[in-house]
Specification:
273 residues, 39% helix, 2 domains, alpha/beta, Rossmann fold, 19% strand
Length: 273
């Protein structure tokens, strides 16, 4: 029998902001009961995997921290493998700051940057930053223009929340791209760096299903690396976007709650009548 592995995006798939999507817990329970391997992969770097575990647990979804990969974690792992150590300036949330501290190369805070510490920065790492200030953009720009590497956690220009779509990491990265005339290395979906990290988690699967809500990250990621692309309509992209872009998922579902029906068909678990 074909061995399936599932990657779930989180924002817009399992929840919107702090509101769980109906049926999300049932889907994870379904996979657990059948031993189908899965991981959570979010382009949001504002929280650590441990914090995301607590958030999911509050929604009744109990998974080990090791199954949760954020773009912040992927950024740290990729930097460990591919970059020379050097001081880091972070424009991002608590999760990204913690990952960069774990990296152990030294993080230049805003106070140190004000005192001229931006001149010692070797890497500027940018993600979604709920506390974004002009001053952070200023020192990030100065460091990049002086020669620091420019790394973005993910390209999402928006992210889905309770009130609608909020500005995402990609909007902040775009500002620095404009002020530095430099192109960043982007770690998260749909790019190669995060695939390098995630493929180790589901390496034994014959077929990987990528379940997400965005055409430009989730579906594009699946298409780029030979995965089955499943788009849900509880997040960012809509059917109109599919028609407009021509980027077509293999399957479009109203929500993640519908996923078990399709898995049952693949697993030969047809309804007994």
């Amino acid at each position: 029998m074909k061995r399936i592995g599932v990657i779930f995006d989180m924002d817009g798939v399992l929840y919107r902001g702090n509101l769980p999507i109906d049926g999300a817990k049932d889907v994870i329970d379904f996979l657990k009961e059948r031993g189908i391997p899965f991981v959570f992969l979010t382009n949001n770097s504002t929280k650590t995997p441990g914090s995301y575990r607590e958030k999911l647990l509050s929604m009744g979804i109990d998974v080990p921290e090791e199954l949760i990969i954020t773009s912040g974690l992927a950024t740290r792992l990729y930097m460990e493998r591919h970059f020379e150590p050097g001081k880091v300036f972070v424009i991002g949330g608590t999760g990204l700051e913690e990952e960069m501290k774990t990296l152990g190369w030294g993080v230049v805070g805003i106070g140190e940057a004000r005192a001229g510490g931006w001149r010692k920065v070797k890497h500027v790492v940018v993600g979604l930053d709920p506390g974004l200030t002009y001053e952070k953009l200023k020192y990030g720009t100065l460091a990049i223009r002086k020669g620091a590497t420019f790394i973005g956690t993910n390209p999402d220009t928006t992210y889905p929340a309770e009130e609608g779509l909020y500005p995402g990491a990609g909007a902040i990265i775009a500002s620095l791209r404009a002020s530095t005339d430099r192109e960043p290395l982007i770690i998260g979906k749909p790019n190669e760096p995060v695939y390098e990290v995630i493929r180790e988690e589901l390496g034994g699967a014959d077929e990987i299903w990528m379940v997400g809500d965005r055409l430009d990250t989730d579906v594009a990621f699946a298409r780029r690396f030979g995965m089955k692309a499943i788009m849900v309509l509880t997040g960012v992209s809509s059917l109109k976007d599919v028609e407009r872009t021509g980027l077509r998922p293999d399957l479009v579902l109203p929500s993640v709650a519908e996923l078990p029906n399709y898995l049952k068909a693949v697993l030969g678990e047809g309804d007994e009548r």
